[in-house]
Specification:
Blueprint lengths: L7 H52 L2 E7 L3 E7 L7 E2 L3 E2 L5 E2 L5 E4 L5 E3 L4 E4 L5 E7 L4 E5 L1
Antiparallel strand pairs: 1-2, 1-6, 2-3, 2-4, 5-8, 6-7, 8-9, 9-10
C-alpha cells in the first residue's frame, strides 16, 4: 500500500518549474511597473495642469505650474497680478521618473490662454520612455505626446 504525499522527485520537479516560470515572469512584471509609473506621472501632471487652467478661468487670476529640479513641481497663483506667485506645497514624481527638461513653467490666464515660459516639459523613466507636454497658446489646451 502506498503512503499519501509527494515524493522528493515530484517536489523537485515542481520547484524547478516554478523557477522557470518565475524567471520568465519577473522581468516582464518589472517592465510593467516601470511603464505604469510613467503613466501615473503623466496622469498626475496632466491633472495638475488642467486644474490650474480651470482655476485660472474660474478665479480670474494667473496660475503657474512650475517644474523644478529633477522630480519636483508646484502650483502657484498670482492673486494681485504683480507677478509674485504664492506656491502650494511641492509635489514629487513617482520613483524612477524624472524630468528630461527642467525649469519648465506653464502659465494659464483667465482668458483661457496659456503659455510655456521656457521649453516643453518631458518626463522620462529608467527605460528611456518619455512623455512630452506642451500648450497650444491660443487656446490654452494642454497636449501630451508619448
Amino acid at each position: 500500500m502506498r503512503k499519501k504525499g509527494f515524493t522528493m522527485i515530484e517536489m523537485m520537479v515542481v520547484i524547478v518549474m516554478m523557477g522557470i516560470i518565475g524567471s520568465i515572469a519577473i522581468p516582464s512584471f518589472r517592465n510593467y511597473i516601470v511603464r505604469m509609473r510613467l503613466t501615473r506621472a503623466r496622469d498626475e501632471i496632466l491633472s495638475t495642469l488642467k486644474v490650474a487652467r480651470a482655476r485660472a478661468m474660474s478665479e480670474r487670476i494667473v496660475y503657474r505650474v512650475s517644474f523644478a529640479g529633477i522630480n519636483e513641481y508646484k502650483v502657484g497663483k498670482d492673486p494681485d497680478g504683480d507677478g509674485t506667485f504664492d506656491y502650494d506645497a511641492s509635489k514629487l514624481l513617482p520613483n524612477g521618473i524624472s524630468f528630461q527638461t527642467s525649469g519648465s513653467d506653464f502659465e494659464f490666464y483667465p482668458d483661457r490662454t496659456g503659455v510655456m515660459l521656457t521649453s516643453d516639459l518631458i518626463i522620462i523613466n529608467k527605460k528611456n520612455d518619455d512623455v512630452r507636454f506642451y500648450i497650444i497658446p491660443a487656446t490654452g489646451h494642454i497636449k501630451v505626446e508619448r
